[in-house]
Amino acid sequence: MSFTSIILILLSIVIVILLFRLIVQNNLYFTSFFSKKIEILYTGNSIEETLVQVIKKLKFKRINIINYEILAITLPSIWSFSEKIKINIEQKKNNKYSIIFTSKCLFPLQIFDWNKNKRNFSRFHKMLKSTNQIEFI
Question: Which residues are CB-contacts of 95 (< 8 A; sequence separation ≥ 6)?
């Protein structure tokens, strides 16, 4: 097999993967991610503190808060090297908030996440439901 054949095969694989991601997942990113927006009504004092407590209960690491944005990293697992968790908080009126949760594989070339990013959101959502200060709209 010649060098040109190998290059053509590799390029074909990359194109097939990109087409798959475009058709099935509606994106062209190599790195797998999951993002979901939820609307809540918050009755506590500090939404950032409440969300940080939820994240700590989930055992996410390296938690940073920067202007209504919370960043965290998950621990490595058999399913992925780690994920970067990003939570954007947008304040609406009358204690209403939009929360955009994004979980993205930390390794840039991890194409498949085996639903780990979606499970990160599910765990986060379940823990939010158990919080007395948050009501889903």
Answer: 41, 42, 43
